[in-house]
């Protein structure tokens, strides 16, 4: 991120302009630099740290964040921060994870509307019902869930360590919630069979299963199809296609690489190929393009996560000015959720 420390506003603006040239319309850069300058000053005055998910829009991502990364990396940063305030430029389940790990600190989420279709897909009561149906089977929940769901779980995982978490349990069977596609991708990677107990064919007693899933889907990643891949490959035969594991197993299989948002970023940074297509939230393509001039990032750019899109520089400034929106989790839930999150942090 760009430091405003010993620089003047003009220098800060010119650095940001150089970074965002061709990625953010020129006319917006000055306005965004002014907001970012104010945020960076306030952040220092209030001893706050700003954690930014890889899906943040490029001006925000490159101007105010102290740490950027995928869910796992940001959880790790949240666990070790010494600042009084954590401003989470991401979605609610991420800010909640930071609070779960830092009960004494103030955690702010700049927009109350930054949810997630996966987190909305399952409730704590759903998990309790599954545990009744499959007693003794360990529950792995994707970190894209709310705190009360995490509290019902044995261990969390992210896209960065899901297979490692499942393998770490050393049991024949696991309940893996709530992302259907991630579960199928992990089942394939770990060689396990999977059932979905609310399907009419999956009553959980008459099939050979080792993973029990749920029907949550990411509203962004479910949009990508094998046909998209075929069309792009026809037009650009040399393209390298990277897919997030929240995409369907068919899409993941037809791609060249699959991994967490940071694993995909690293893949582009560490390979020297001409052209890449990311099957994920499209701001991330902009962020990688800004940091890797000379590598062409193709985008299917209708695909923006509406929840991540809620987090703006304007709202981040307001969050620091007004101390909003404070993440609160009842202590009885937080303590149980912390066990599942802390277990996850010991793996992968
Ligand atoms: P990562 O953990 O890979 O950053 O994914 C988070 C997410 O919400 C992807 O849609
Ligand atoms: Fe949730 Fe999908 Fe948005 Fe990620 S991209 S925050 S999984 S809705």
Please name the defining characteristics of this protein.
13 strands; binds iron/sulfur cluster; four-stranded parallel sheet; 348 residues; five-stranded parallel sheet; binds 1,3-dihydroxyacetonephosphate; alpha/beta; 16 helices
> What structural class should be given to the helix and strand makeup?
alpha/beta
Major β-sheet, in short?
A: 5 strands, parallel
- Walk across the major sheet and give the strand order: 6-5-7-9-8
Number of helices: 16
Order of helices and strands: HHEHEHEHEHHEHEHEHEEHEHEHEHEHH
Overall mean confidence score, pLDDT: 93
Fraction of residues in β-strands: 5-15%
Q: Please report the distance between the alpha carbons of the first and last residues.
A: 26 Å
**Relative helix content:** 40-55%
Name the bound molecules: 1,3-dihydroxyacetonephosphate, iron/sulfur cluster
Number of strand elements: 13
Regions with little confidence, pLDDT below 50 for 5+ residues: 199-207
Shape: globular
Q: Whole-number radius of gyration?
A: 20 Å
3D structure, described in words:
The chain is α/β, with parallel strands linked by helices and 348 residues long. It contains 16 helices and 13 strands. The protein has helices at 9-20, 26-45, 58-61, 71-80, 92-101, 117-120, 124-133, 147-151, 162-168, 180-190, 226-235, 249-254, 261-270, 282-291, 313-322, 331-345; strands at 48-53, 67-69, 85-89, 106-108, 139-142, 155-157, 174-177, 194-195, 211-212, 240-243, 257-258, 275-279, 296-298. It has a five-stranded parallel sheet with strand order 6-5-7-9-8, with helices on both faces. Strands 2-1-3-4 form a four-stranded parallel sheet, with helices on both faces. Strands 11-10-12-13 form a four-stranded parallel sheet, with helices on one face. Helix 1 (9-20) crosses helix 2 (26-45) and helix 5 (92-101) packs across helix 16. The longest helix has 20 residues, at 26-45. It is globular. The protein starts with 8 loop residues before the first helix and ends with a helix. The model is unreliable at 199-207 (pLDDT under 50). The structure holds 1,3-dihydroxyacetonephosphate and iron/sulfur cluster. Iron/sulfur cluster binds next to helix 6. Residues 54, 70-72, 144, 158-160, 218, 244, 246, 260-261 line the site of 1,3-dihydroxyacetonephosphate (13P).
